[in-house]
Amino acid sequence: MTTEAMEKQTSQVDVMELRVRHVKWEAEGVHSLTFVHPEGADLPEWEPGAHLEIVLPSGLVRQYSLCGDPYDRCRYKVAVLREPNGRGGSAEIHDTVMTGRLLKVRGPRNRFELGYAGKYVLIAGGIGITPILSMARELGDRKAWHLYYGGRSLESMALKDELSVLGAEHVTLVPQDTRGILDLEAIFADVDDDTAVYCCGPEGLLGAVLAQAEAAGRSAQVHFERFGAAPNAPEPEVSESVESFEVELRRTGCTVSVSPDQTVLEAIRAVVPDMPSSCEEGFCGTCETRVLLGQVEHRDQILSAAEREANESMFVCVSRAKSPRIVLDL
Length: 330
Ligand code: FES
What we know:
Elements: H1 3-12, E1 15-27, E2 30-36, E3 50-55, E4 61-65, E5 76-81, H2 89-95, E6 102-110, E7 119-125, H3 129-139, E8 144-151, H4 160-165, E9 171-175, H5 176-179, H6 184-189, E10 195-200, H7 203-215, E11 222-225, E12 245-249, E13 254-258, H8 264-269, E14 288-293, E15 296-297, H9 305-310, E16 313-315, E17 320-321, E18 325-328
This protein binds FE2/S2 (inorganic) cluster.
FE2/S2 (inorganic) cluster binds near residues 284, 300 and 315.
């Protein structure tokens, strides 16, 4: 990410307090939440693929893709699948009376931007439909596109009403119990040089899409958003850390020492208790922090080799310093 983009993003991630206007049952195991500004003010703009970081009543921070209308500045909508084997965020949302609550919300942030192409193929699995729906809306009648949406059953597939408005000629629903799984070979047969593919869903689907894209020689045209760490994530840099190091928090005006058995995030929280985090494993992006000075040992699973080289940001839940001192824009 460029410095300019980081500055833009930093300015976009101020915390807002938004009210949950209503909660709606969308499908089996899926609730949507609609947020509004408590005083009716316009909400910050966003683009398809963007997500919100929501601080739940328990203090857990979770990221959810925006799935409403980007041109509607009055409300944000996210949809949340209850994950029985998850880390507790979705269960809290499903089990707590959320309507009327004021919640802290950061964002919108976007790590899944819709780029320019002549044609688009959109592939969604399960709750992965959320960012894909907003992309489909954006493409509308202006572009050639088709969305393939797979799910366990029709009853489990959320946001079908919104999809039906987009036109049957653009959308193919593939419930597994009646139609089997997505035919990726056939889907990629229609991907030509001018087509961009955007895919969001569970790891099994993403792996299958990547394998098919590679077989078709189209992997460079595929863009993913994952729910967790990628199996082929960049290797962490782990060899050059100094034993302990100092982190200056320039805006906070203090310096903390990070011992070998402590993360930078833990040290920061001694002076900035509400420093946001979510996965704390280096894959969600919540704790991204701009680096002003010093060399970082990048251990995240997000930055490309070029972004690591640029050394403009770090994920403080896992990454450390190579130099005795680093300065962060915090
Ligand atoms: S908290 Fe998820 S990347 Fe740091």
